[in-house]
Amino acid sequence: MSKIISVIVPVYDVEAYLPRCLDSILGQTYADLQIILVDDGSPDGSGAICDSYAKKDPRIQVIHQKNGGLSAARNAGLDLAEGEYVAFVDSDDYLEPEAYETMAALAEKHRVPLVVAGRWDVSGRTGEKTRGLCPRAEEAVTGQALAGRIFLWDGCDSSACDKLFARGLFERIRFPLGVVSEDLAVMYRIALQAGAAALCPVPVYNYYHRPGSISGKAPISDKTFHFPRHTQEIYRDIRDNYPAIAPQARYLRVRSLVYLLLVLYQREGGKAYRAEEKAARRELRQSIPFLLTSPYFAARERLTALLLALGLYGPLEQFYHRIKGNTP
To answer: What is the per-residue pLDDT for 318?
Structure first.
């Protein structure tokens, strides 16, 4: 008999996408599923959709709870999970039919508690699917090696949704409440705890990019700083406890500083965060020797980081646009 996979689906304001997501789970070639739908106080008809699907399939359980965010919904699902494995699906995304059969087979083949697969990026405007992050080859790697790859976006990242986990990995780990980029704070710890993982060079998950998304233009708020705060804690942890992958963790830290400085420069309201900008630029300047010697940076990444560290990015960009505007 195959092992049960508990599939946890946080649900919030997704009535237009939820049926496709649920149909993709119910249509899995791997049938031994416990499907946990967590209605996180959704204001639309998503909760009713969850209930209607539960009436049609006994594998589905529904939790209705007060809105607490993605982490709270996932944690509620973990508390109810009974399967030997756990998987997560975001409710506007969907699965390839053989997703769980493929990953479960690799977990058993390599005798590992964690499987990392690939994903498709799906355009919300055109429906076109392009190959997203995906491991290059099937192989078993150590937990430290996987964490290092996550830090580098090397064929995988910190997303919880294109992975299969032994449920025991979450006995002492939960998703942090009240923050965004929550996967980043959790997945490297899961990788290290797992000790070993199998990489699956097959896209099994469809990441749907909603049309008209304004995530890249969202106003600056406390959430803007969650990603760099996570990387600060991660780098300290890795530097002190796993020095073999400290360079990869430092690369992630530098990338987060670049992200923060670009956001503060490009989005409205950035001038109100002068102290945070100065602190990020100071740390980035201190990282210049690493920037110049690390093999992980592409040339353009390195140049952008150096210009930001030296305070030259803004003036040079303005000069470029001024010259471009005067070009016949």
So the answer is: 56
The string of pLDDT tens digits covering residues 137-176 is: 999 999 999 999 999 999 999 999 999 999 999 999 999 9
Q: Which two tokens stand for residue 310?
A: 């030296």
Length of the chain: 328
Task: Give the SS3 label for residue 3.
Answer: coil
- Cα separation, 104 vs 2, whole angstroms: 9
What the block records as the tokens of 216 is 């890249």
Q: Are 156 and 253 in contact (CB under 8 A)?
A: no
Largest CA distance in the chain: 72
Pairing of strands 33-40, 94-95: unpaired
Using a 10 angstrom Cβ sphere, with 0-12 exposed, 13-18 middle and 19 or more buried, the burial of residue 235 is: buried
Q: What is the pLDDT of residue 261?
A: 95
Give Cβ neighbours of residue 305 (< 8 Å, ≥ 6 apart). 254, 257, 258, 284, 287, 291, 297
Question: Tens digits of per-residue pLDDT, 240-296?
Answer: 999 999 999 999 999 999 999 999 988 888 888 999 999 999 999 999 999 999 999
Query: How far apart are the C-alpha atoms of 60 and 63, rounded to whole Å?
Result: 10
184-238 tens-digit pLDDT: 999 999 999 999 999 999 999 999 998 865 455 678 989 999 999 999 999 999 9
Q: DSSP string covering 207-261, please?
A: EEE-TT--GGGPPP-GGGGHHHHHHHHHHHHHHHH-GGGHHHHHHHHHHHHHHHH
